[in-house]
Amino acid sequence: MRRPKPGFALVVTLSLMILLTVIAVGLLTLSSISLRSSSQGQAVAEARANARLALMLALGDLQKSLGPDRAITAPSEILATPSAAVAKPNTTGVWESWWDFNPNSSPAPAYSTEKTSRFRRWLVSSADVAAAGSRDFATTVWTGKSIELVGNGSLVLYDKAAIDPENPAGSLAASVKTAHPSG
Q1: Domain membership flag for residue 48
Q2: What is the DSSP letter of 87?
Q3: 74-97 CB burial, b ≥16 within 10 A, e <16
Q4: 60-66: which pairs have CB atoms within 8 A and are 24 or more residues apart?
Q5: pLDDT computed for residue 180 by the predictor
Q6: In the predicted model, what is the mean pLDDT of residues 75-98?
Q7: b/e string for 166-177 if b means 16 or more Cβ within 10 A?
Q8: Nearest-angstrom CA–CA distance, 168 and 162
Q9: Residue ranges making up the domain that contains 59
Q10: pTM of this prediction?
Q11: What are phi and psi of 178, to 5 degrees?
Q12: Strand 119-122's sheet: what is its strand order?
């Protein structure tokens, strides 16, 4: 009977140890990747929740400002004069409607007076909350720190929403604005 060569058990034991080490390193790498992806998923969920909250706050502010169908919105460009443009274009303002307007009354109401007296506020997010209530807000330049979200050349004009026809669910529309004669 032949005796196994000395050291064979040592080689088998070392091979098994190396195999177990490779398996352990692989499992640690897999758990690290899954932990990283779950924390990224948590960050995405938190960002979506924050965006949803901001949207709900903006809608609430819009409903509070516009009230029960007794308000009118208009862009800041209605305050422009032939000699001067507004400093903050594309800003939307809220005015009280003329729900009590009687077309048979005499004299006819003065549009410029009504435009001033019926102003409520601008629909903007500003560090100075009181400034949004001033009619002159759109005619003054930005002061302090400001971030321009939409500026010259950042929008493309479309006739309709740019939604992926292959996958309409979950698609985002580009800012939709039709060109008009004034610009």
Answers
A1: yes
A2: S
A3: eebeebeeeeeebebeebebbbee
A4: 61/123, 62/123, 65/94, 65/120, 65/121, 65/123, 66/94
A5: 44
A6: 84
A7: eeeeeeeeeeee
A8: 10
A9: 17-66
A10: 0.53
A11: -90, 145
A12: 71-75, 92-96, 119-122
CA pair distance 92, 73, nearest whole angstrom: 6
Q: Which two tokens stand for residue 29?
A: 């790498």
Write out pLDDT tens, residues 134-176.
Answer: 888 888 887 767 666 666 666 655 444 444 555 555 444 444 4
Residue 54 lies in a domain: yes
How many domains in the chain?
1
Q: What 3-state DSSP class applies to 148?
A: coil
Peptide bond into 107 cis (omega under 30): yes
Tens of pLDDT, residue by residue over 34-80, are 888 887 888 888 888 998 998 888 888 888 888 777 788 888 888 88
106/174 Cα distance (integer angstroms): 47
